[in-house]
Amino acid sequence: MARPGGRLDLVFVPVDPDAPGPDGFVPPDEGWRVERHPRAVLYTRQQGGFSAKCPRDGRDVTAAFVRAHAGWRDGVGPRALVCPCGSSHDLAALRFVAPGGSTHPAAAYARFAVIQLDAPSATPDSATTEALSASFGPYFMIARRPAG
Predict the structure, then answer these.
(1) Distance (Å, rounded) from C-alpha 35 to C-alpha 67?
(2) Domain ranges for the chain
(3) Nearest-angstrom CA–CA distance, 145 and 8
(4) Are 80 and 11 in contact (CB under 8 A)?
(5) How far is CA 70 from each of CA 63, 87, 90, 145, rounded to the nearest angstrom?
(6) Is 34:117 a contact under the CB 8 Å cutoff?
(7) CA atoms of 121 and 79, how far apart (whole Å)
(8) Within a 10 A sphere around the Cβ of 131, how many other Cβ atoms?
(9) pLDDT digits over 11-33, tens only?
């Protein structure tokens, strides 16, 4: 089993999972990467797992999420699940929670991501947050430790 590496990457994705791209964002140096996809993909912490919670009542829907995500990823179902609360939710609307209650989401869907590779801290500096907000508006940040 892979163990978390020492590298910390910060993955910035728009709150809108179907936003087309980071207009005008220019990576400040070679320690950044921009990924683009034709449809939304699921960005995750890569280590430590997460659970999926209903956005309406907070109940755990992880098992239903895993099945729904696999169906959507494989092209045999919508990006949605019928929740025990009685509602149908877009998978991107679920709350993805890391063990231990991190304040950052543990996963998010997006068509693009701006990734700071080997970040010096889990807290981006104000110039970075301002540039990201100006480029694509509200965003989620996922802190991940790729296997090393």
Answers:
(1) 26
(2) 1-48+99-148, 51-97
(3) 5
(4) no
(5) 11, 20, 14, 23
(6) no
(7) 33
(8) 20
(9) 999 999 999 888 777 777 788 99
